[in-house]
Records
---
Amino acid sequence: MEHGRPDQLGRGPGEVVELPASVAPPVDVALEELEFVYAYIFARVGNRADAEDLTQQVALKAIPRLRSGSSHGAIRSYLFATARSALASFWSARFGLPEEELREDIWVATERPEPAGESVERVERILSQLPANYRKLLELRFLRGYSLKEVAAELGTTLGGIKVMQLRALRAAARVAVDG
Amino acid sequence: MGERDEQKAAERIDRIVSEVLAGRRLKAMPSDAADRDAIQVAARLAGVRDGYPRMTSAFRRRLGRMLEDGEAPRWLNRRAALAAGLGLAAGAVGGAAAGPVATRLEGLVAAVRPPATPPPVPTPSPEPTAAAVPSRGVIEPRAELARWTNTGIKFADMAEGVPRKVKAGAIGAFIVRRGDQVLAMSSLCTHLPCELVWQADRKLLNCPCHNLAYDVDGQSMREGYPLPALPFINVRVRTDGRVEVLGT
């Protein structure tokens, strides 16, 4: 390739097109913040239905704050703190345990919102510390959409065997997550 | 734990896992509490299967209406309303639709296994060179379509730290000089796919859709929840100083 081409709009390469930045109305600002809250929650509950429920809760609690004209930063902090609290209640209700008995330090609380890619990196770190067969099982099952039957075929074992192996792999991953 | 107990636990955990992976609610119960760490780790694993999750447009619209009205709407399900401490008519139910089944292979693998090494950047002359970069997403056009495209820009003409927008077929990029190196990155915001614009007075790349910003190296400047950095585009500098990017 020796020569450049103009793009489809006929502009020459290298041209910069300046567009004005928009000023979003308050509800749009809140929705943008809630998009991040949703991602934060989804990364922890792993399914859309629960993530939508919890995001709704967070949004409802935030309405008075939005109406009081709180600053953008204050709304963001409030939304994040509310999301943490909603997640703690979520797990507490499912396991029938008081929130303080859950591993908040590992699974719920962080000092600040984490960068969007951090959940992926965290999972990758956990998987990298597992034995190869556990890692492969979890990657196929959770990240590549294999059914348990397909995983069993891939790893050359029975369906019953792979279920037990999945349990052991998840327990091993939990140990890695908690310890490290 | 005996073998039978382990098999029972394995069945129970798999039921929970299967539901979550099918996009349905996580149905753990107090009897599962002994395996709560394993269940939470399963939720974490399921939570990254779609890369960066976003609200559906329908859910986003509903939330927007709720915020505008300032009250719990009829569609809000009872559990959410109770948890939020709101009174709600007894008959008001609704609920989220079942979620998607996640089997998108390529995106997932790419998200979980980003390239461990910087993109290949042929450097025919000892200087200038392409930028040495940390691990970060790289846009790789399909091999049969990939072609090096002359940007029409000479390295010697590039001002330090001033991105220039270029287009190489389907790939839009900003190229920026950093010392004796050139960096190329996607021109699309990583939040939603709006084309970024360079604002010289503020020295940042601005997204006109939601007023988000990236610095000249493509790192999100958003406080609180930073966005992913702009993915790299392959770039090279020819011996005559022409800058080329790998487009389509």
---
Amino acid sequence: MIVIEFLIILLLISIFAGVFGSIVGLGGGVVIIPALTLLLGVNVHFAIGASIVSIIGTSSGAASVYVKDKMTNLRVGMFLELATTSGAIAGAAFAAYVNSSALELIFGSILLVTLIPTVMKIGEDIPKNPELKGLSKRLALTGSYPEPDGSVVSYNATRPKTGLFGMVIAGMLSGLLGIGSGAFKVVSMDVAMKLPMKVSTTTSNFMIGVTAAASAGIYFARGDVNPLIVAPVALGILIGAALGARVLKRSRNPTIRKIFIVVLAVAAIEMILSAEGIAV
Amino acid sequence: MNLKDPETMNEVVGNVLRFGVLTSAAVILIGTVLLVAASGSSGISSSLTYNPNQIPHGTFDVSLSGLANGLVGFQPYSLIELGVIILLATPVSRVLISVFLFAAEGDRLYVYITAVVLALLLFSILATPFISVFNA
């Protein structure tokens, strides 16, 4: 295969990854890693390096739209980033001492289990608005966002400590396995904090850039960020994220949830397969 | 621009992200175009034929001096690396600017929260590659 073909194939795959990653708040790693390793035969280290770049690209590219449109809750994001960044550093410190196959099997199974509460809420448009009290009130974890029909939805977050705990786990997983772990972030905000689905996915999208950036230094220094591979990935992801952000704005919460459930199932299965030695 | 208005924060953070993303994309695009253009000349065409086994792990220069030299020489790989570094710096800049925006809003609690996130982030990016526990 000549380089130009490789670049074009990877660009197209990355556009696809950017569209879905930006809508569901997971970044593009779910698509990029298996495409690189299984389809193009790229070394798994380069694939993870490219995945980190794809997550930062999806996050920043889509967030530039979501933040201006007030979909993302900046305070919820900043508060939870306390947990994801400290979790990521702790995870990175332990990465050499744990069996990554066992971890992937455990977390892949946990992801499959988290499908249940997410599926139970299928069809939910706007969650019942809990009263703003306690820590959520002190931290001002509240907001409102516009729906495509022009109405404005107000919401309050609940159970911030449970959400924070979920984010420590998500952060540790990022540090241990080099993934964005957006799935745990979305589920924590959706199930524990009862935020509307769009707010959960766009706030997760906002946060994964910081989580991925936290571990990027190590991958960069190791030489895992290969320019030939990350160039088409970064360009494609940025195009895809811009497209995905426009799709999300026009969609309603139940649609976003259905897409999320499919991507979550794929992510869980990929992680379990990876534990079994299939490089995805 | 009224810094006390919470909407200002969304505007500024959105603009920072957009600026970072567009600059990064432009630099990476220039690097990629130069790379493809260079592949036309016969001298390097064979090395640019893609074969996963021909891209051994970690053989390209990741040092800052290597990057600087490459940029002076307008090397495609170095330009792409610079673009990736700009992309990486984008979420960091977003956190940095948020510290000041929360301060301007008078929200002291979030100034502290954001400052801690920034410190953790900078530690993780700049310090962990040099600490052996993180590289075992």
---
Amino acid sequence: MSAPWYKFGLFGDNVSLVVAFVIGIGFGFFLERAGFGSAKKLTAQFYLTDMTVFKVMFTAIVTAMIGVFYLGWIGYLDLSLIYLTPTYIVPQFAGGLLLGVGFVVGGYCPGTSCVAAATGKLDGMAFLGGILAGLLLFGELFPLVSGFYTMTPLGRVTLPEFFDLSYGLVVFLVVLMAVGGFAGATQVEKWMAAKKGVR
Amino acid sequence: MTTLTASPPADLRAATTTAARTAHPYMNPYLAGLGLGLVLLLSFVVMGRGLGASGAFTAVVATGVNAVAPEHAKANEFYAEYLGDGTTSPLMDWLVFEVLGVFAGGLISGALAGRVRIAVDRGPAITDRSRLILAFFGGGIMGIGAKIARGCTSGQALTGGAVLNLGSWITMLMVFAGAYALAYFVRRQWL
């Protein structure tokens, strides 16, 4: 085991901030390349006319998932040292729904709004202002909602652990689901394009 | 894509028309996804953590509240978690620097592709003003949602999705459910 490098002390906190900036550049670069600096492109996912969001997101998930799985399997990457946010079932159901609503109303998510703002989109900048306002509102109301916020805690738990399946099997199932999803998404795009043509 | 109706300076207008004419098409989605996935994998290998976005903005808000009303900020459990013991600024944070990189990376990619221009992205049936108001409200809803879910589409759906985190998959499925459920009601903004 020799990774994650940071956790094995290869560099300190100051260098980690430089690493953060460089990794962020890569993240922002590919978000913009994919077309995610455009709210119309992103929200077309929810009207089924352009399924790019699903395709990009699941290609990225599958790529990183397989990489992490194999690097762990050959003993290079210590998976127990990778940070996982703890699971809170009910808050994450509700929070996820709010994220979805905010996405289709606002046109972006926090990461893509940075890319939109950086490329001159005024609506991306307005969205960023909204995020700050929302966080301030949440922070001020936190004492009132903290009970709900910490409901149904399950701690650090993965899908293989929760469903008592092998890690490899879940990886395989996610790959199958993604490949099936890609084929389905492309088919849906064709139907929607044909429907538009008929109109 | 609709450029702003308010007149920008003549040189900027000329620049935007040129940019619009020469804007390159977007990258193939599978190729962009592969690139994004490799960046995420690199982050796991180098740092032992994935990507994020909303956490950086929380650090900004906590810093702002602390600057205006330090006692108030310290008394609030939510801000206090970000402020720590006060020896280092919450802005000296991994996610803050990562998000600064996201701005830079987006600008680099956009500039290389001729896609940097002042514009409001919206459908033809809505005004710029209404679009900006809705963008602000959507951002607000997403800010709150990201806190309740412990992360946004970057930190939960993408990062947590790749390491098969249970809570991340719940969040991801609910993001799609929420967006599809509401899409019909805001269609005038986009279609």
---
Amino acid sequence: MSNDADEKPYSGDPANPDESIRFEQVSKWFRRKGQLVHALSRVSLEVGSGEFVSFIGPSGCGKSTLLRLAGGLLEPDLGSISIRGETPQVAKSLKHYGFVPQQPALLPWRTVRKNVSLLGELNQRRSHTTGISPDDQLQLLHDIGLGPFVDSLPAELSGGMQQRVSIARAFALGAPVMLMDEPFSALDEITRADMRYLLLDLWRRVGSTVLFVTHSIPEAVVLSDRVVVLGARPGRVIRIIDVPLVRPRHEAVEDGDDYHHIVSEVRAALKEGSEDQ
Amino acid sequence: MTELNTEEVADSQVLEEPPPEPRRPLYRALLAVAPFLGLTFFFVGWELYVRISDIRPLTLPLPSDILRHIIDNPGFYWRNGLVTVQEAFWGFWLAFIVAITVATIMAYSRFMERATMPIIVLIQSTPVAVLVPIFIIWFGFSSWPKIITAALFAWIPFVANAVTGLRAVDPDSHELLQSIDASNWEIYWRLRVPHSLPYMFSAARICIGLALVGAVVGEFFNSKEGLGNAARVAQSRLLIDQLWGSVFVLAFIGVAFVLLLTAVERRVLRWHSSQMLG
């Protein structure tokens, strides 16, 4: 596979070189209306602890499927996935995942504060993870500009505000692995640009591993340590592109030549993927 | 040009104030009394129609005569109304509990849904009234045949809405709860049940009336008391005032309970879009 040649083993943060997530020869098929669809073909990837990795590709490249496989919401047909040395099912039961779906998916009958504390309240069987303390949750909401809205109902917030709550909810769990499925795709461009740096700020403080699915090349480059470019039919890794931009990153990063260079590299890889078909 | 500019500067220096809160107390008051206005309109229309067209009281009495008759016999209607309300009340809750149980099973299993559906349709298309004598054979001359009849009238809207409410949860929310391995029990109580509440309230609105009608139908067959009995006796002895009086009292009870339900709904469903406008 083409990804084997391009893939560099993650060198990682020297203080914490542990591998966090490993996909090994993962394949997945779906049956849609009697038709067998090859969603993912032999995907192999290692993600280091605390690394921010984006998945980008055309629709049907299986990037959301990859995220759901990592989260134990789907099972691979072939190959294996390990999350900090455990299977995704075990990691799930230990509440190792902070999931940010495409829609904010807030429970409309709970206030902002109670939506953020929700995941801590559930599944107390195995893990006693209740997330960060209620005071820290409140602080988190203040930090991301939701202070005046902690007792509001979701319907009283704008789409951008709701998505902020959704991200706060994931971070409030204090989970080591974040799974984000195009969380900004429904937002307008201005809000979207703000959210990138808000997310980076939160991530820098928590230091969790992030798998981030997106349609946007600038978003992938601004956020990530590495960008995984996927091709469609069957979904597969085309290239893995390093993003050696200095951190912490701010808006100014988007003015630099390095940034533009990497953006064109990702664009070229996407094109390469679509020409392969 | 220059004049215009200075004007603009002057304008911007005036302290900017938001427009005053629109105050429409009259409209708010109107909204509050709208149900009573509707009823008044209905009865005044009826009264005028009967008076103008000179219909015989046997055909259609004056609503004012019926009301006077009720006011003259408060004990009679209170006693019988209470009996019917009790039967309808227990029938309503019996229907609710059975429906929630059945709907939960149906919402969790496509197989059970398909297997249960014909039975529900079977029960639904059975003329329940015809079965009341059978219930009397089964349960004797107690309140049970009436409670069962009330429940059978009321449970179908509950089942239908509960299945939709329990099942049609937001897939993203569902996946979110799965991502932390929430148990089925947690997903049921924290996601499905709250989500089904608006559906249950709109079913309850219909079921209040159905349970009352069911209780009255039950009383029609064998009873010594209740509004159904009062109406049956009135029918056989041509007591037109009492027949209409029973119907009126029943209708008032229905309206009162629906208003009570609406008040509860307004509190419980504060978060739901149905409660956010107006």
